[in-house]
Write a structure and sequence with these properties.
The chain is 59% helix and 0% strand. The chain is mostly helical. It has a domain of 36 residues. The longest helix is centred in the middle third of the chain and has 39 residues. It starts with a helix and ends in a 33-residue tail after the last helix. Keywords: Membrane, Transmembrane, Transmembrane helix.
Length: 97
């Protein structure tokens, strides 16, 4: 009974080790550093640069037209079932019955 949990832990450790390429120690750490660096420069940094560039463009556009209308608060949702304010569709007249 006592060795079954040890065997389970050993199986989990070997699965994790094999899923990471079977590397151990310093070479494992070095490979993860290289992979992380590549991921940063190929995916994370370009998306951050694009977001920063879009923010700069938006700031320039806002600064160029000081009289442009900017919505400063969120619209209040309509509590009706249809979401439309037009007409009296959802009202029922009980006096007609």
């Amino acid at each position: 009974m006592g060795s079954s949990w040890r065997r389970t832990i050993g199986n989990v450790r070997s699965f994790v080790g094999n899923s990471m390429g079977g590397l151990r120690g310093g070479s494992n750490l070095a490979s993860w550093v290289v992979a992380g660096t590549l991921a940063y420069f190929l995916w994370v940094k370009p998306s951050q640069d694009l977001k920063r560039e879009q923010q700069q463009r938006a700031a320039l556009a806002a600064a160029s037209d000081p009289y442009r209308y900017v919505e400063k608060r969120k619209p209040i949702p309509d509590p009706q079932e249809t979401g439309l304010i037009y007409g009296n569709k959802n009202r029922t007249n009980k006096s007609e019955d």
